[in-house]
Specification:
This protein is α/β, with parallel strands linked by helices. Helices cover 34% and strands 16% of the residues. It has 15 helices and 16 strands. The protein has a six-stranded parallel β-sheet with strand order 1-2-3-4-5-6, with helices on one face. The model has no long low-confidence stretch (mean pLDDT 91).
Amino acid sequence: MNGEICFYNKPNKLGQKVWALMLEAISADNILPLTSGCNLDCLFCSHSQNPPGVASYRFSPIPPALLDQLISYLNPGRKIVIGESTTRLCEGEPFTHPYFLGVLQKLKRHFPHTPVQLTTNGALLNQNNIAELAGLREAGGLEMVVSLNSCSPDGRKKVMRDNNPANVLNGLYFCRERGIPFHGSVVALPHLLGWKDMEDTLCFLEEAGALTTRVFLPGYTRMAGPEMRFAPSLWEELCAFLEEMQERLEHPVIPEPSPKKDLSACVEGVIRNSPAHKAGLQYGDVIVSIDGAAVATAVEAFQTMKKKAAPVLHVERPGKKKGTSSGAPAETIEFTLFKEKDAPPGAVFYHDLDPHLIKKAGGKMQTSGGGGFQLMLTSSVAHPLWVSARDKGLLPTSVIIRSTQNLFFGGSICSAGLLVLSDFTYELDRVICEEGLPGQVLLPSISFDRGGFDLLGRHYSELFDCYPKLSFSFL
């Protein structure tokens, strides 16, 4: 882990790298970086678990003059995100930035019609800053993602070292009273806090008015301490628990990473008072077509529903409850979602594959030359989805799709964004040993930054040197 950097756009090499990552975060995801500072010390914080050699970067609160430069690069046509990171920057707690509320006010002056999403641990919420947020909410779109993790004061103290847990617990009710929409976020730690704590936390979030809640499998690397490790069965137990809870709760509760194994457009939850809710869409419904056109994936279903005004949905409603094996035959129902173009539909899906990405993968395979078979390397999470795409005829049936394990990070890590070059070479060597030499290899581009480097600073061109007879492409 690199130390804090105070000068972001100065001519030293490290400062230039951090500044470039900030610009990349803005251009790729409209994320406005603010600070790596944090007021809590969470057991599950990923920043403390990086193995040696990982090129991640911390930065002190960005001063106003540089913030003005970054703000000028934001896209007013996309939601502005604060408190998240999709690059190697270690993003901290936004409320620790000394000018945070002023930053929000400036954003609303510059982009009065652009929605802003703010992710926070909630420990610094109070009536004063909630009143400020409410004013900004009235001026334009603003919503929060609150990393609650436990509604028990003892639970927050144990896993987040939050010595003032009443702030977030009371703050969420203040947010509801002031009309500030928020989504819940919970890192699942039943091995530390118990299943009852998670049940109480999800019920608390519903009572407080959460629109949705994401429940994350706690990621740990090979560097994690014993308190963060858990049995491999936890993920299956968690998904079964959340299915049971979803039958009791009104707001959608979604596990992350997605447990999805196929491309069906199954509705995993419906946001209260949304167009989907008012139309009568229910948990477990499967979207078959929209305005008469069949949908291939859940991502396509959501994108199409959002894009269209008043879309007509043909839905297959199972005659049995999700997760059971008996019941009446399924029925087909037609719904009209009365909504404006580009307005959120309110239906929640597990994320699967973007149809444009599937089409791009198919195009790369069709245009490849040379002999040998085609090989696609994916993360363990994405593997069943790509296999489903191939089995549905969306990819050439001859392609071999192999799951690549996160051996470098180890632990419970299963993300393509955390795969490094050595993970790919290990799997490639296994494939060559078992199947022979492939003619073309397709890799996930998210494993490399825009310069082509993995998280250890190794460039993908090393693959060309190690495997000169192979043709590589990136998706």
